[in-house]
């Protein structure tokens, strides 16, 4: 089953609670929360205190994508804030296995993310320990970017790697997802689609979310 996780990076921060309720009513499965530190990526967004506040307004699954260096130092804060899953970048930690185990020990699902130019071999050894692999289909740091086409065969290779190992792991894709690119990534094997500007910029939020699953 395809899940849609709208990114609140594209929401109106002045009305964040309302923006979250809007996607919940429109059929979103998860809330995708892009956490940026201004170092690992060239932007600065929000941290665990914001997650703790918005946790009060919805029961949707909180998918926290940490685009930060040394993510292990923030994991406990996100667990306390009510995150359901924390995804860290393979490129951002020296001890990926330890970081993933820390996330799980805090009672959350764990995932690993890869930038567009990062090879799949970076996650091959950690696959048995994660719930999800996030493939970036834009360079992380900003919303509204164009989809990188080479992500499609990368998804297919990852799907084969997962299936050959007999594992049950979600493949999430983030960046430039719309009604056209969503079809490409679903056919390649993606199961969770992150969409920000496409969902929040739509005149009909419900229709936009439905189109990503169609």
TrEMBL record:
This is Ribulose-phosphate 3-epimerase. Binds 1 divalent metal cation per subunit. CDD domains: RPE. Pathway: Carbohydrate degradation. A divalent metal cation binds at residues 32, 34, 65, 174. Its EC number is 5.1.3.1. It comes from Phascolarctobacterium faecium. The gene is rpe. SUPFAM superfamilies: Ribulose-phoshate binding barrel. Belongs to the ribulose-phosphate 3-epimerase family.
